[in-house]
Write a structure and sequence with these properties.
Helix content: over 70%
Strand content: under 5%
Number of helices: 6
CATH architecture: Up-down Bundle
Oligomer: single chain
CATH topology: Four Helix Bundle (Hemerythrin (Met), subunit A)
Number of domains: 1
Radius of gyration: 16 Å
Shape: globular
CATH class: Mainly Alpha
Structural class: mainly alpha
Order of helices and strands: HHHHHH
């Protein structure tokens, strides 16, 4: 059985870094308000890299220490990690490219973030975590993750339109 520190390293930090990375591109984000666009883009990329490193290290840890169970939480997490890799690769081209390539980066990045949120919520529903935290905490966390995921996705979609 994996302890909660390892679970947080795998999913929680990845989700935190990706949410912050998306928010850094918004001029209304408190930390990003005084920054120029090029600096916000740099911070976005740096946070994405930090999140990707966390998900790669966490995935390698799970593969080396445990058997992959095929549970929905793990499968969605692996799909999210694969999409994160595609997003990272597309970001390299998006930095130097024009609108179409940036749009591809966004089209890959939004499902990555959504799947990461789903995987995080499914992780909250794991029996060990539910016993440890209690049902009310689990449902509060799921509500919170759902709420800010919807806000971030709607905000990005509004910016595109």
């Amino acid at each position: 059985m994996m302890d909660f520190g390892q679970q947080f390293m795998i999913e929680g930090t990845f989700h935190f870094f990706t949410a912050e990375a998306i928010l850094f591109l918004n001029f209304a984000n408190g930390l990003a308000t005084p920054m120029r666009l090029k600096h916000r883009r740099f911070a976005h990329g740096l946070l994405q890299i930090c999140g990707f490193i966390c998900i790669v290290l966490g995935t390698l840890f799970v593969i080396s220490e445990f058997e992959l169970s095929g549970a929905p939480h793990g499968i969605i997490g692996l799909v999210s990690a694969a999409l994160a890799l595609c997003s990272c690769l597309s970001s390299i081209f998006a930095v130097f490219g024009k609108g179409d390539i940036k749009l591809i980066h966004i089209v890959i990045g939004l499902p990555t973030f959504l799947l990461s949120s789903i995987s995080l919520c499914l992780g909250f529903l794991e029996t060990e975590f539910e016993i440890w935290a209690g049902k009310s905490v689990v449902y509060t966390l799921i509500s919170f993750v759902t709420f800010y995921t919807l806000i971030i996705i709607i905000k990005v979609l509004m910016k595109l339109l």
